[in-house]
Please model this.
Amino acid sequence: MALHPNARDNDQIQTQDPLALSSQIIDTGEASEPTNRVTNTLVELGSDVAMVESFSHMIVFRTEGGLVTFDASHQNSAGAVVEALRTWTNDRIDSLVYTHGHVDHVGGSGAVVADAARLGHRRPRVVGHDNVAPRMQRYRDTNGYNVIINARQFGGVKRDFGMGAAPDFLAEDVAWPDTTYSSHLNLNVGGLDFELHHGKGETDDHTWAWVPEHKALCVGDLAVWVFPNAGNPQKVQRYPHEWAQALRTMMAYPAELFLPAHGLPIVGRDRIQRVLGDVAGALEGLVTDTLALMNQGATLDEIIHTVRVPQATLSLPWMMPVYDEPEFVVRNIWRKYGGWWDAVPSNLKPAPQAALAGELASLSGGAAALAARATELADAGDLRLACHLVDLAGAAAPQDKAIHEARAAIYFTRRAHETSLMSKGIFAAAARESDAVAKADDAANS
Model:
């Protein structure tokens, strides 16, 4: 997760104690303040426990043998995060633990290593699951692709970047793990025990930790105050079933302090149990209902329009689908258990979209007729069907200004009706793509 959708600028963020704020939100079921605060400031959460609230948080434990930090934030925020840490202590960082290899968690590690060198400390030990390094290598191998999809997801830009070589998706100075594990790893730093556990969820390389002396759970991105990112349409496989299992395992621990990588920390066992149970229950329901329909022979189309998470669950401040959404999770469950084919025969080896679009345009009276009908449907509120038709119109007449003006308008409207950042980003990218075609035609005729 590269940006939490509830984040606000610093001057908009309240200074309320994060534990008090999360308690208020969970106890009342209502949130009037952001649940993820990007202040790049450090808050103490207990004796020798702190959090730097940032793009992705850094969790810090102070021990007699040095600091243990969970995650290093993003490369763009790491300098401010390290600076905030040093307002609290100049103790040596003994160990940097990666909860997983997403760039907003490992990208700032270069700043952590540079800070150690500046202070004359030895390089921190870097700890992560066995799959972190392969993830980092995959990011190197697919650098341009990841730059494109992240820009589309978060900025809605068009596919043609025109930038030549893509910038680094994974920071060049990122610190690769030097201590790895497969299932469990026990660390002891300065007499403080850290029990590291592997659990698949948003990623296949995720670590969550139990710190018994503090009765604390460090959970990374396994619970982050939004509906779980278990379906991202542009990223690799997610693991909803295993994700729920990891959360249920955490619930067996007598945790009193809950430390996520995004969102507010939580104090109190009952509150922690509530949040973990809600996330696990939603994922379990999606998996159970999707598999039941798959076992009955339903198509993917039938399943995604049938399986739901109760609206009462999605209305909770820690479950709102403002980043990912249930429909995408259903698709990921299908992909995990059933493969990529959606059970529609013509989609197994389809005709090129442009050929299909041209044939349908011919049958309907031309691409303009498709676009006109799409606009009618959008005006009537049927944005799903409108987008199908206007995409076909655009594919049949890829340089037609009027059609692309209609396509841009429909997709901008659809973006405004969506809740999740992923849907908003993709639909905005489509709108801007058509907007660019229409404006290019204007420029050519000027």
